[in-house]
Amino acid sequence: MSAQRPGIGMTGFAILPPAPAVELDAEEVAVLRKAAGILGGRRLAVLTGAGLSTDSGIPDYRGPGAAPRNPMTYQEFIASPASRRRYWARNHLGWSHLRHADPNAGHAAVALLEQRGLMTGLITQNVDRLHEDAGSINVVDLHGRYDRVICLDKGHRFTRQLVASILEEINPGFLEAAQASGVVEMAPDADASVEDPELIRSFVVAVCPVCGGTLKPDFVYFGESVPKDRVQRAYSMVDEAGALLVAGSSLTVMSGLRFVRHAAKGGKPVVIINRGHTRGDEFADLKVEAGVSGALAWLAAELPDLGPSAKPISVPVD
Ligand SMILES: [Zn+2]
User: Fold this and answer.
1) pLDDT interval class at 309 (50, 70, 90)
2) Residue range 26-58+103-143+227-302 in CATH 3.40.50.1220
């Protein structure tokens, strides 16, 4: 899916440096110099959220200007076939939007921080896979990934692409009819709002091609826990790090906020780059109110190299 993107090689590595940084004003640069003073000389665990992907055209749930929205909970999804029909109809429309999004300068900057050996790992709350597309390797997709589907009955896994072709086959004309009726809102979890209730009622949900079980996109819903092994991997990244850098998250949900608390409790400096208040502000040594892409690009370029005593990055096999 990323092979045609400029700057992305066959391996998925970014082969170009980050795009020229978004203009930062003097005040922002002054705060970033303070951030570099705190973060410099330490290996970083980096935690990112939806604010990092808005520059890639993926709307935020909660950032300034975001439309109020109540995502379907896990309990609602499980409870009724009608909920699942509504969910899958909207996801069928929305997922291709994520598939066509490209990583931006912020994603490239995080990949560069890793390539420079300045990171222990990346924890992202985004399901859009844009970090991996930009070349990040050691990534915990905390809330899962949009491009995979799991079978709730037997744990079978499929690509979203395969499920898309099944859905297209059993719902001929659906995409065209939905697009004609107008899509008014997109969300970072591939949810799209469909205006026509008749169209949703006519939607046929795909079942697991192996066992006939219930299919669900492989991401963590509201009301659902992050799998334990994934949480542990993320904690390890924070434990191995000398500091935590948060970028583009309001830390509204505990799944991300707990790593900020953990770092602060361990006496590790926390720097947060985000426009607007976050729930982690009280734990932060420094809050940077600046555009996330530009700020990350500045840090990736300006943070000093680590000495030869720095430990090499361990890359887990996922
Ligand atoms: Zn199955």
Assistant:
1) low
2) yes
The type of residue at 56 is S
What's the gap between Cα 37 and its chain centre? 27
Amino acid 239 reads D
Does 13 score more than 50 pLDDT? no
pTM over cut 0.70: yes
How far does residue 93's CA lie from ligand 1's centre (Å)?
A: 23
Question: 84 C-alpha vs ligand 1 centroid, how far in Å?
Answer: 16
Nearest to 154 by CA among 73, 204, 93, 209: 209
Per-residue pLDDT at 69 exceeds 70? no
Compare 156 and 176 and report the one with higher pLDDT: 156
Alpha helices in the chain (DSSP H): 26-39, 74-79, 81-99, 105-115, 130-134, 160-170, 174-181, 197-201, 228-240, 254-265, 292-302
Q: Start-end ranges of CATH 3.40.50.1220 in the chain?
A: 26-58+103-143+227-302
Lowest mean pLDDT among 30-44, 66-80, 280-294: 66-80
Q: In Å, how far are 181, 253, 284 from 278, measured between CA atoms?
A: 37, 10, 10
**What digits encode the pLDDT tens for the residues 187-243?**
667 676 666 778 888 999 999 999 999 999 998 988 889 999 999 999 999 999 999
Contact (Cβ atoms closer than 8 angstroms) between residue 124 and residue 105: no
State the DSSP code for 283: G
For residue 46, the SS3 value is strand
Nearest Cα to Cα of residue 286 among 246, 238, 229 = 246
Rounded to whole angstroms, how far apart are CA atoms 26 and 4? 37
Structure tokens at 225: 């826990």
C-alpha 211 to ligand 1 mean position (Å): 4
Q: Is 143 a catalytic residue?
A: yes
